[in-house]
Amino acid sequence: MRLVRGGFLWLLAASLLRLSNGDTYDIQDYTDACHTIFSPKRTLESGKCERFIGGYWAEITNRLRSSTCVGQDCSRLAVTKQRFYSESECVGLPYEVFTYPVQNECMRASNGTQAFRVDPTTTNVTQVDYLVNDRCGGDLTRQYIMSVGYCYELYPDRAPRSFRWEVERYDATAISDAWRPSSLGLVQAAGVAAPLALLGSPRAREF
User: Fold this and answer.
1) What pTM was estimated for this model as a whole?
2) Taking the mean position of all CA atoms in its chain, how far away is CA 122?
3) Does the N terminus or the C terminus of the chain have fewer Cβ atoms within 10 A?
């Protein structure tokens, strides 16, 4: 993904990008953590430079992420998926799934930025929220450590009542072309906005 700085003012808390089909993407802007819609969705075409989010333009293409994929066009990106369930104990099919890269990419979040990483044994996912900071830095942070595969209970009287974290790896050493905090260096592109994760169980350890 190539991002170009433009003349737009960043007014949004988060944006959500979904693959519509093989050649187009739907992007929805929100004023909060992906609950209150700011404007109608926009559709972006694959391989075409278009206005993306805030002051950025982007040319977007997708890659197949699969253990059976062969060749340079395959994605090596490791991701974590947060699956929300209508019922407790993570019963049934998830009704909402959020996907995040876990190589410590810096992503926009509600009231700041956030980054995710996973330990080498794929046991825990660590989420770090950088409050009121737009480049994953500063001293005002909140950290959560979540057990992979464990079902967390959330709201007892309404959905979502539970959620779990899963990790999908193709290559544990892979990195993405996204900006990371200074401890990992600066690479080619800026992070994509992500909704703020819901965390409600004592098993998700906060630091």
Assistant:
1) 0.64
2) 18
3) C
**Cβ(90)–Cβ(163) below 8 Å:** yes
Our measurement of the distance from residue 170's CA atom to the centroid of its chain's CA atoms, rounded to an integer in Å, reads: 17
What is the chain's length? 207
Q: Is 197 in contact with 145 (CB distance < 8 Å)?
A: no
Whose tokens are 């609950």? That residue is: 35
Give the Cβ contact number of residue 125 at 10 Å.
Answer: 24
What are the extents of the domains in the chain?
2-59, 79-206
CB 98 within 8 A of CB 53: no
In a 10 Å sphere around its CB, with 0-12 CB exposed, 13-18 middle and 19+ buried, how is residue 135 labelled?
middle
Please report, as a single letter, which amino acid is at residue 34.
Answer: C
Q: Which of 115, 22, 28, 18 is nearest to 63 (CA)?
A: 22
Three-state DSSP class for 42?
strand
DSSP state at residue 195: P
Burial of residue 142 (CB within 10 Å: 0-12, 13-18, 19+) is middle
Average pLDDT of each block of 10 consecutive residues along the chain (207 residues)? 36 67 83 79 90 84 80 85 96 93 88 92 95 92 96 94 90 48 34 35 44
In the DSSP assignment, the letter for residue 89 is G
Q: Which residue has the tokens 């949004």?
A: 12
In angstroms, the CA 31 to CA 37 distance is 6
